[in-house]
Amino acid sequence: MSMKPYPLKFAPVFKPTIWGGDRIARFKGMELSRADIGESWEISAMEGSESVLGNGCYAGATLPELAGRFGAELIGTKVSARFGNRFPLLIKFLDANQDLSLQVHPNEQLARRRHNASGKSEMWYVVDCRPGTRIYAGFSRSLTPKRFRRLVDENNLLPSLGCYDSCPGDVYYLAAGTIHGIGAGNFLVEIQESSDITYRVSDYGRKGADGKPRELHVDQAIEALDFWPNPGIRHTPRPDTDAELVCCPYFNVCRLMVDGSREMDMSGESFMALVCIAGSGSVDTPGCDAVAISQGETVLVPASLPRFTLTGRMTLLTATL
Questions:
Q1: Which of the following is catalytic: 86, 130, 200, 214?
Q2: Letter string b/e over residues 111-123, b meaning 16 or more CB atoms within 10 A of that residue's CB
Q3: Known catalytic residue: 86?
């Protein structure tokens, strides 16, 4: 049975964390009963946190169910050839009301060997930040594993990390193996491989909900880490323009400015996720009801939808493969 293609709007999956706050709810214009939401998983095929469709004739189905049923019609011919019927990305909003831990994610080979799972490369787009906010990413100097362990044991790792003052519009690409830590006050979009494997290196002595220090994974991290500096982790595209943000083997992310209407064509090779970071509008397709999209919302366009029109005044991040 062929898919009836139309823009898909999923319910967000909210994730309480010890470092979260209330900014995601405010950004989305929603009221939530708690103020410790660190992440909103906008499009997810992760087991236990699957996105559930909220609109159209397939409402109530999960993203993995749709991908399993329709395969390349939903995710695209190129994506299906590489991943089968598995949706390959996880897309989030992230509110760092407090500092996140220093951490690293494994690459494909290590993740397969250790966890029979995908690796985790990711990108961040800074939507907003408080004054004085920082992000740590990569090393500022080369380290040996032995020197790294000593700095961790001495609680003196931060001076050896790349440290960046946050600014809205900043883009970070964090290939698997890159150490990183998001400082308090950052509000981000995160687009990543569909994986949730994290090796925590330092958590500043913070305790979890059980009152005990959170688990660290230093031995696992040492095998996963790239110990060489990478000065190209961050870049800042010219503001208020269309821009290619990240092009890598795992995702292609662009910023798209809509003021009026824009015609969009699909190749059939990949889906397109639309993440609205400012303004509002609609996704219009022939023969289907228009799907509204506003700040804080995400729409997934199936690969088999040949064309659609974006109407309104809004800033979008687009994610494809």
A1: 200
A2: beeeeeebbbbbb
A3: no
